[in-house]
Design brief:
Blueprint lengths: L19 H15 L4 H8 L1 H7 L4 H18 L2 H9 L1 H18 L10 H29 L4 H30 L2 H6 L2 H17 L21 H30 L4 H28 L4 H20 L5 H25 L4 H19 L1 H13 L3 H21 L10
Helix pairs in contact: 1-7, 1-8, 1-10, 2-8, 4-7, 4-15, 5-6, 5-7, 5-15, 6-7, 6-10, 7-8, 7-14, 7-15, 8-12, 8-14, 11-12, 11-13, 11-14, 11-15, 11-16, 11-17, 12-14, 13-14, 13-17
């Protein structure tokens, strides 16, 4: 009987790892995306006085446009894991950058008799949705594509996000001075977003979406909601966000109330942002090298809350010391919280689920901090009580920072 010779079973070829050039290009794109994630918010604040003076936006609209963006980050964040599983994270990033560009183009447009308000509201909503998606997906992208460079890439993209707030605050008003139009100054920021979207097209096109493997612990995304570690990381993020957004919105008015002139107060806010960039650049590398992050998380929470409280209550002769303490602490605290997404997960799918959970709750509930400061000032006529309130918030950040810093993984329980 003739022997039947079976051909060896063909095995699927493993995908070749990306070249260094492609990784470098991807890393550059992720950093450039980060540079566009706060300009939409800080640019509006830079010309807020001119928007009010134009009379084209009612006061209730001003209140909506200054408070809604942070809430939108929390509202849209939970969509990111769902879209990432269905479409692939890189395609979602590309789509988000396209939506961000559209929002920035629509935002300053005038809608006939309705004026600028419809465009501002629609554009802000589009920007908030796009930024929320990018906020959630960027840490998981770093986790997936740069597993051996978590500290470096985490530092670079978080520093870029902080820098984007400074860019929007620093360059919008000069554009207004050059053009004489606040709508043109806001429109300017659509062009960097468009450029990054175009640059990211080949990355998204080449990306292969494999979906979540069957039976994978991250397949059922809500699993992270049952993890105590995920909740510790999320609550650490929440307390961090309460302080960070309050500083962003109220530091300058606090300094002005203490008798510091507007120019000096502006210089101090700028110095604080520069120090935030330094803190956010180095904190992820330090966190990644430590056995656990308990001591680091608590130290940064104390630095931030004490720096904020002393900026409100401390001796005015040492105000630059308090500003420096606050700036370094706040930048490093934000970066450390985001780095925990990568350090507390084993898989990229789990990272995007954790990121959606912590940023959805962190930004959604953390925006209460800004309203808390406003209510305290309205009720007492002073920011003094806010200083004490943020010492209490610092205690919360310290407690959950300690718990989140323990060497445990969300995947083990999710």
């Amino acid at each position: 009987m003739a022997r039947v010779i079976h051909a060896p079973e063909a095995r699927p070829r493993a995908a070749a790892p990306p070249s260094r050039a492609r990784l470098a290009f991807l890393g550059l794109c992720l950093v450039l995306i980060g540079l566009n994630l706060r300009t939409a918010f800080s640019s509006f604040g830079a010309v807020l006085t001119e928007v009010r003076a134009s009379g084209s936006v009612p006061e209730w609209g001003i209140s909506l446009l200054t408070t809604a963006p942070v809430t939108l980050l929390g509202v849209f964040a939970p969509l990111a894991p769902v879209l990432s599983r269905r479409l692939g994270s890189k395609r979602v990033l590309l789509g988000a950058m396209a939506v961000l560009t559209a929002g920035l183009l629509v935002r300053p447009s005038e809608w006939g008799p309705a004026g600028h308000l419809p465009g501002l509201i629609l554009g802000t909503a589009l920007c908030g949705a796009a930024i929320a998606l990018c906020n959630v997906i960027l840490p998981s992208e770093v986790k997936q594509d740069f597993p051996h460079r978590l500290g470096l890439m985490g530092g670079l993209y978080t520093a870029a996000i902080v820098a984007s707030a400074a860019l929007g605050a620093g360059f919008t008003y000069p554009v207004f001075q050059a053009t004489g139009s606040w709508s043109s100054a806001l429109l300017f920021w659509a062009f960097p977003a468009l450029a990054v979207a175009v640059l990211f097209v080949p990355v998204a096109v080449r990306a292969r979406h494999r979906g979540t493997p069957a039976g994978h612990p991250a397949e059922a995304g809500p699993g992270v909601w049952r993890s105590s570690t995920a909740w510790h990381v999320t609550l650490y993020m929440l307390f961090q966000a309460m302080t960070s957004f309050s500083v962003f919105a109220w530091l300058s008015p606090i300094l002005r109330e203490r008798g510091i002139d507007g120019a000096t107060a502006g210089l101090m806010v700028s110095a604080s942002i520069v120090l935030q960039m330094l803190g956010s650049l180095f904190a992820p590398s330090l966190a990644a090298r430590l056995w656990d992050q308990r001591a680091l998380n608590v130290t940064l929470a104390v630095m931030t809350s004490v720096g904020f409280a002393l900026s409100v209550l401390g001796p005015l002769q040492l105000i630059w010391v308090w500003i420096a303490l606050l700036g370094l602490g706040q930048g490093a605290l934000t970066a450390a919280a985001l780095t925990l997404i990568m350090l507390r997960t084993r898989h990229g799918h789990t990272a995007v689920n954790l990121s959606g959970m912590m940023q959805g709750i962190g930004y959604g509930v953390g925006s209460v901090g800004t309203l808390l400061v406003a209510q305290i000032h309205q009720a007492t006529g002073s920011f003094a009580l806010a200083g004490w309130a943020f010492l209490a918030i610092g205690v919360g950040a310290s407690v959950f920072g300690y718990l989140a810093g323990r060497r445990r993984n969300v995947d083990d329980a999710a």
